[in-house]
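Task: sequence design from structure.
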């Protein structure tokens, strides 16, 4: 077996994590007591203060609530009426950052909504309400096709309304932000249950379907908070562990994100107790308002721009406790692959190490600034979808306590090694390398979309 220089710390960290009642109490408080913690709610404020107070109690230093000003969103009732060939109302919910609008026109059903279909069917989409489902791996796609991309492609093809139907039966209507860089979407969007989405699809196969879509949501300036705490090291180099704490307003957001939030909190607690003084400073950050556009982490990266050269690694734990096969996905840092694989052997904790990038969690603002990043995810990509995530049923009873313990122990043990590694092969990427990475064949299609939608909003927003 490989020599493990951190065996004593590993033993104490792991033993404590697997025997403490603290994890469950943190999970229960964040979900049952504070609800969704959605931006602008009382539960969000209470959660931020709770996380701050826990960090202080655990012995961390430089603990602070860092305020983030942004354009917040408040849900109001939404209406979807079928006007022809039948007259019927379908229950629905607005998608966050949907504008207030009334649209009356015909429906076009794009089903799984593969990217190529939007250009191919642009004449049908123009001036219509577009129905898509939440399938993330439509025909021909080898990557996760995010809700925001389906919306953006519908907008650029001339769609005037957006219906996002769940592809899971019995889970109700899904939610998910549709704003663009902290501003409302250009067209109204709603979530619809699988059953009602399937009904609309059947009607559309028989002939023209005419709809009236009404949203009445409001936006206003708000303040959120990133919660920050540190374990000072012997140098100014930084290792950051983070997870957002806000959920969507229709549920507790227990798997997404609290299973990861609690894991970061537990890693902070045990490293404060058993990690000694690391070489690098360990910083733990709980991000606000991730669910409507990574707003908290974007604001942090902008506010801490002068520190980014010092960041050795950012490890993202979004929903980590809910990941079934926990591995480490590095964001295209091949020099770090053998480092993490070696730690897997050293720790006697087999986990896979993979390489990929995406734009849909709090690692992304760091990634785009060249900081070495990765996340606790499944290396074997599951393109089935979110499950209970972003629905009313993402509640505490869905969370595996054993899964959260595993995530916390793995995160804490890895953080200890990252912060004390003598030879660290990854350095901050210059902008030209970042641009080249996203122009590679694996990422070119999605990057071309991101460039196109940014230009579209610049022109029309």
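Answer:
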């Amino acid at each position: 077996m490989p020599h493990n220089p951190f065996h004593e710390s590993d033993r104490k960290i792991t033993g404590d994590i697997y025997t403490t009642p603290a994890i469950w109490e943190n999970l229960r408080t964040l979900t049952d007591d504070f609800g969704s913690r959605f931006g602008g709610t009382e539960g969000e404020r209470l959660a931020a203060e709770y996380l701050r107070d826990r960090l202080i109690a655990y012995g961390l230093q430089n603990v602070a609530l860092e305020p983030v000003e942004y354009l917040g969103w408040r849900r109001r009732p939404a209406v979807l009426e079928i006007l022809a060939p039948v007259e019927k109302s379908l229950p629905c919910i607005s998608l966050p950052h949907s504008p207030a609008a009334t649209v009356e026109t015909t429906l076009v059903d794009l089903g799984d909504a593969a990217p190529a279909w939007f250009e191919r069917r642009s004449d049908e989409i123009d001036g219509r309400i577009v129905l898509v489902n939440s399938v993330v791996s439509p025909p021909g796609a080898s990557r996760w096709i995010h809700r925001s991309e389906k919306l953006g492609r519908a907008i650029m093809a001339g769609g005037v309304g957006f219906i996002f139907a769940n592809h899971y039966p019995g889970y109700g209507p899904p939610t998910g932000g549709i704003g663009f860089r902290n501003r409302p979407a250009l067209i109204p969007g709603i979530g619809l249950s699988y059953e009602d989405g399937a009904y609309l699809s059947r009607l559309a196969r028989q002939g023209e379907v005419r709809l009236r879509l009404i949203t009445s949501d409001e936006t206003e300036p708000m303040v959120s908070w990133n919660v920050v705490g540190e374990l000072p090291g012997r140098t100014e180099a930084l290792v950051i562990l983070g997870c957002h704490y806000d959920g969507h307003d229709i549920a507790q957001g227990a798997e997404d994100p609290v299973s990861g939030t609690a894991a970061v909190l537990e890693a902070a607690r045990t490293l404060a107790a058993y990690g000694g003084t690391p070489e690098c400073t360990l910083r733990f950050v709980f991000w606000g308002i991730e669910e409507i556009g990574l707003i908290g982490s974007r604001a942090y990266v902008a506010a801490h721009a002068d520190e980014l050269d010092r960041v050795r690694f950012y490890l993202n734990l979004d929903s980590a406790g809910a990941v079934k096969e926990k591995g480490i996905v590095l964001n295209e840092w091949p020099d770090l692959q053998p480092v993490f694989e070696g730690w897997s052997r050293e720790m006697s904790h087999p986990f896979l190490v993979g390489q990929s990038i995406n734009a849909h969690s709090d690692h992304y603002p760091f990634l785009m600034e060249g900081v070495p990043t990765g996340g606790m995810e499944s290396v074997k990509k599951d393109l089935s979808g979110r499950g209970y995530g972003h629905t009313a049923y993402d509640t505490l009873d869905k969370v595996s306590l054993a899964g959260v313990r595993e995530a916390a122990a793995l995160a804490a043990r890895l953080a200890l090694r990252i912060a004390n590694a003598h030879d660290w092969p990854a350095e901050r990427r210059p902008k030209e390398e970042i641009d080249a990475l996203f122009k590679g064949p694996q990422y070119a299609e999605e990057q071309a979309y991101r460039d196109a939608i940014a230009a579209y909003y610049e022109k029309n927003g």
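The chain has two domains: 7-73+221-436, 76-216.
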